[in-house]
Specification:
By secondary structure, the chain is of the alpha+beta class. It has one domain (46-53, 81-276): Sortase, Chain: A, CATH 2.40.260.10. The protein has helices spanning 6-45, 47-50, 55-69, 85-96, 176-181, 226-239; strands spanning 100-105, 112-116, 139-141, 153-157, 184-188, 193-205, 254-261, 267-276. It has an eight-stranded mixed beta barrel with strand order 1-2-3-4-7-8-6-5. The longest helix is centred in the N-terminal third of the chain and has 40 residues, at 6-45.
């Protein structure tokens, strides 16, 4: 066997050393970005709690809410529209960025973030609520939601990140037990602090234009008719991974949370809820 010369061995050793060093550097960068991204998401999730509200303003709001809570049964629904501390905090956040349209929270999960709405559905995929470049992006409401109507369905998107932040935990709803323990979505805007009962959980994908008779849930924002609304609800219920007794009727405000899923190419995972009132039967 021909021996490798000393100079060639040095080149080989140097090449291996260079490759290993490069791999170590790339690993360190990846790990650093992973934890930095997670830290930023955690800090963002704590943002609402850190906002301070003027005590006199809060006292006035609390007194108004207490008076409303003493109203008759027929007026109970109206109490959901009363200003709460969370509403005041959302209003405070909007002073920093008017694109903030609300705050989304699912208790017991990492989903606890401001919701943004831009003029397109691209910007907040790569920017945070401060309009800074961010791999996390933001939780954002589709640009097509029309607040002046208002539209029938809050269609809200978020990244599925492998560090467990943003909408990654939505995928846990694939298990019915998780749904039973986290069946309420809370969405607070500058006018309302509302809860939504989950009515459907399903896997989907982005369909080709040529495909017919498929459920493109990501196109449903505003129902042009009662039939269109009912069709969406029926399709969502039919696609659900497991039976959920609760459903929605025409006129109910809906919320749909959507993220990427890797069960198929261009896969999606969605959770649909209906607005809950204290007197809802």
């Amino acid at each position: 066997m021909k021996k490798i010369s000393k100079s060639k061995r040095k080149i080989i050793y140097y090449s291996i050393y260079t490759i290993l060093t490069l791999l170590i550097i790339l690993s360190i960068i990846y790990i650093a970005n992973y934890f930095l991204s997670k830290k930023q998401a955690i800090q963002e999730s704590q943002l609402l709690d850190k906002i301070e509200i003027d005590e006199n303003q809060l006292k006035e709001v609390n007194e108004t809410t207490e008076e409303a809570n003493i109203t008759t049964q027929e007026n109970i629904e109206e109490t959901t529209n009363q200003e709460t501390e969370r509403i005041l905090k959302v209003q405070k956040l909007q002073e920093e960025n008017s694109d903030i349209v609300g705050w989304l929270e699912i208790e017991g999960t990492s989903i606890n973030h401001p919701v943004l709405q831009g003029t397109d559905n691209e910007y907040y995929m790569t920017h945070n609520y401060k309009k800074q470049k961010s791999k996390n992006g933001s939780i954002f409401l589709t640009k097509d939601y029309d607040w002046s109507i208002p539209s029938s369905n809050f269609l809200i998107y978020g990244h599925n990140l492998n560090n467990g932040t943003m909408f990654q935990e939505l995928l846990k709803y694939a298990k019915e037990e998780f749904y039973k323990e986290h069946s309420i979505i809370r969405f607070t805007t500058n006018k309302e602090d509302a809860e939504y009962e989950i009515i459907s959980v399903f896997k989907s994908r982005v369909y080709y234009k040529t495909e017919k008779n498929v459920f493109r849930y990501y196109f449903f924002v505003n129902a042009n008719s009662e039939a269109e609304y009912n069709e969406f609800v029926q399709n969502a219920k039919k696609a659900s991974l497991y039976d959920i007794d609760k459903t929605a009727k025409f006129g109910d405000q809906l919320i749909t949370l959507s993220t990427c899923s890797y069960h198929v190419e261009d896969g999606r995972f969605a959770v649909v809820g209906r607005k809950k009132f204290k007197n809802y039967l």
